[in-house]
UniProtKB/TrEMBL annotation:
InterPro entries with a match to the protein in the record: Bact_solute-bd_prot1, SBP
Origin organism lineage: Bacteria, Bacillati, Actinomycetota, Actinomycetes, Streptosporangiales
Keyword Signal: yes
Keyword field contains Signal: yes
Keywords: Signal
Pfam families: SBP_bac_1 (PF01547)
Signal peptide coordinates: 1-29
Protein name as it appears in the record: Extracellular solute-binding protein
Length: 455
């Protein structure tokens, strides 16, 4: 299965089509439906704003009865709920993938399946990317933009030096542990590094917990509470503790965020870390990775969970929006986000523009928005412009579809991660860290924050 260049097309296109939004209500001229849509780039992003304005003009030309007003409003967890409850939000809202399940459960957003299904290509959507936007009855509530899934990034050159197969990344966390130890022993480099600061330690612990079959939060009687003080997170932290102190396979520098890790990886100092294919661009373009052929990525290794963390932005319609405006909003969502990602011609044109820059990375995959047949068409259209080694991304592309995509915690995710940062840091810097005690204290701290946020 090869969904590569097409996925680049979707991801890069999403940057150009940057979204839509506005801040006014009501209709314009008689018979015209006016919708306000979030996602419009700020005035400082002149190319993005120009592309957005052209997209609006093209849409209104095709749909003369609909007026689109863009909004630069961005998601703010401190004000979002109040605006939504008060009916003051736009007709199309953009939220991170942490939010849809909570919004669906609280009946704050509209089911869009009936309107989406009017699009001829609706059934070609990749069910995997719609699942986090759906309820248990299968109703779909939104349209995703540039979805991603975490995997295991690895240095193919260090694998080869350590006598490991660069074409076969570890599939389980036991295999990660063994590979990390071997890399450390045979190359002197850190076999595996786990981020631990700037809320990213908690973020990566969420990934590791999902892979072990656990959760970070759970719904308890309509309100979310901490769910991580259980065996999956305990096993994940114990694994990190053993790799750090028993195996000595994680190096000496344990206070890292994503930029630190990718910078060190680009310099050939790290064997493996959890990340997405998109970190290739950071390694190459931001940190000057000389041996880009050393970049490889596989699916998230598993330890009983068959899951990985996903993310991206999602466009939804508030429950308070009228049926007429909901229908207009779905037409906009399809035009702005689904149709361009589905069109091989658009993907090829964007790839061609990117390929003109010798420092670009054309062909880096994201999750496919559509089924294998459609992605194959997009891949073929983009193929002439690809300048990365597609085979080095193949393990991720082939293994990720078998995993459940789990979003980040739905309530106060960043505050939860901040608490869990301290747990990860303790495990990685204190040989005698008590995992049970750390989780128990974190559970108390997180439940206090969650209760305050859900009053």
């Amino acid at each position: 299965m090869k969904h590569t260049a097409a996925l680049l097309g979707c991801a890069a296109l999403a940057t150009v089509l940057s979204a839509c939004g506005s801040s006014s209500t009501g209709a314009g001229a008689s018979g015209t439906v006016t919708i306000r849509v979030q996602g419009m780039p700020p005035a400082t992003d002149k190319p993005g704003l120009a592309a957005f304005e052209k997209m609006v003009a093209d849409f209104e030309k095709q749909h003369p009865g609909i007026e689109v007003k863009g909004s630069t409003t961005v998601f703010d967890p401190l004000t979002f709920s109040a605006k939504l409850a008060g009916g003051r939000s736009e007709e199309v809202i953009r939220v991170p993938l942490t939010e849809p399940q909570g919004l669906i459960a609280r009946k704050q957003v509209q089911p869009l399946t009936a309107e989406l299904a009017k699009w001829a290509h609706y059934k070609e959507f990749n069910p995997q990317v719609l699942r986090p936007l759906s309820d248990t009855a299968g109703q779909v509530y939104g349209v995703p933009q540039a979805p991603f899934a975490q995997g295991l990034v690895y240095n193919r050159a260090l694998f080869a030096k350590a006598g490991l197969d660069p074409g076969k990344p570890p599939a389980t966390w036991d295999e990660v542990r063994a590979a990390a130890k071997r890399i450390a022993e045979r190359t002197g480099k850190a076999g595996f590094v786990h981020e631990s600061k700037s809320n990213q330690g908690g973020w990566q612990l969420a990934m590791l917990t999902y892979a072990h079959g656990g959760e970070i939060e759970k719904d308890a009687g309509g309100k979310y509470v901490a769910a991580f003080n259980a065996d999956p997170a305990r096993k994940a932290l114990t694994l990190l503790k053993e790799m750090r102190w028993s195996d000595d396979s994680m190096g000496s520098n344990q206070l890292n965020d994503q930029n630190d890790v990718i910078k060190r990886f680009a310099a050939g100092e790290i064997g493996m870390y959890m990340g997405t294919p998109g970190t290739y661009r950071l390694a190459k373009m931001t940190y000057g990775m000389a041996d880009t052929d050393a970049f490889g990525i596989g699916p998230m290794p598993q330890a009983g969970g068959r899951a990985t963390l996903t993310g991206g932005d999602v466009y939804l319609v508030p429950r308070s929006v009228s049926a007429e405006k909901t229908a207009a909003a779905v037409k906009w969502l399809l035009f702005a986000y689904a149709q361009p990602a589905h069109d091989p011609g658009v993907a090829a044109e964007r790839a061609k523009q990117l390929a003109a820059d010798p420092q670009s990375a054309v062909g880096v995959p994201t999750l496919p928005m559509f089924d294998a047949a459609q992605q194959a068409e997009i891949d073929a259209a983009v193929k002439p412009y690809v300048n990365v080694k597609l085979e080095h991304f193949a393990p991720w592309l082939e293994g990720t579809p078998a995993l459940e995509l789990k979003p980040e915690p739905p309530v106060q995710a960043q505050q939860v991660y901040a608490v869990l940062d301290t747990v990860v840091q303790a495990v990685l810097t204190d040989r005698d860290a008590d995992v049970d005690a750390l989780l128990a204290k974190a559970e108390t701290d997180v439940n206090t924050k969650l209760a305050a946020a859900q009053r």
